[in-house]
Amino acid sequence: MAALDKTEQHAEKLAAALAAVKYVKDGDVVGLGTGSTATLAIEELGKRVKEGLNITAAASSIRTEKLAKFYGIKVLDLGLLSSIDISIDGADEFTESLDLIKGGGGALFREKIMATLSKNSIIVTDSSKKVKKLGAFTVPVEVIPLAYRYVFDQIIQLGGKGVLRKADDQTFITDNGNYIIDADFGLIDNPAQLNSSLNQINGVLTSGLFIGLTSKVIMSVGKELIVFE
Ligand SMILES: O=C(CO)[C@H](O)[C@H](O)COP(=O)(O)O
């Protein structure tokens, strides 16, 4: 598939985000993802709320919480919810079997909790995110700082190469006060097994591999929408 320029990619993100928002019903508790595509869905939800849609939301990051409040959406504490009716989030990569890599924006842990609680977890993407096998995008691994070196070495034991994520030359710190190691495992034959191996390492909060957590992926390609479920 030909590479998208920024305008085409934005148009695809917007089309997917608008399609996902149509699934939101009055009275729903809505999980709000993080990233540029999720932001477009939040903006649209904000418009609908102004027009009278009655929803409450849970945010997957501090920046999403601020954005939702800016758009007049009532936000509940994610940690107090035992279920979410519908969530809308982006992804860095996905396969037709609905396995994902997420966490490019660093919000993987809260996003994973949100997806786990969601009865209907919708992922919205442009066409650049669909892959045959996960792994061209590195796997974000959220790590308790104290365990950084140990986890880094364990990732090597699993056949990966880790890089500590930086932002503006400083170590990137997640909303939970942790580090992220971006781990390159090449193309991943068994994402479920890798996810479970990573999650078993002491000091790992979670990996950015999302397995069995997604209800549907809405992907926009040019003027077409494709739904994988
Ligand atoms: O997982 C994420 C943030 O942690 C994002 O959903 C993912 O990085 C995709 O972002 P975008 O919609 O900007 O391409």
Overview features:
229 residues, alpha/beta, 30% helix, Alpha-Beta Plaits, 27% strand, Ribose5P_isomerase_type_A
Quick recap:
The chain has 229 residues and is an alpha/beta fold. The chain has 6 helices and 16 strands.
What does this structure look like?
With 229 residues, the protein is an alpha/beta fold. It folds into two domains: 6-131 and 211-228, Rossmann fold (3-Layer(aba) Sandwich); 139-207, Alpha-Beta Plaits, CATH 3.30.70.260. Helices cover 30% and strands 27% of the residues. It is built from six helices and 16 strands. Strands 3-2-1-4-7-15-16 form a seven-stranded mixed beta sheet, sandwiched between helices. A four-stranded antiparallel beta sheet has the order 9-12-8-13, with helices on both faces. Strands 5-6-14 form a three-stranded antiparallel beta sheet, with helices on one face. A hairpin with a 2-residue loop joins β10 and β11. The model has no long low-confidence stretch (mean pLDDT 97). Bound molecules: ribulose-5-phosphate. Catalyzes the reversible conversion of ribose-5-phosphate to ribulose 5-phosphate. Substrate binds at residues 34-37, 89-92, 102-105, 129. Keywords: Isomerase.
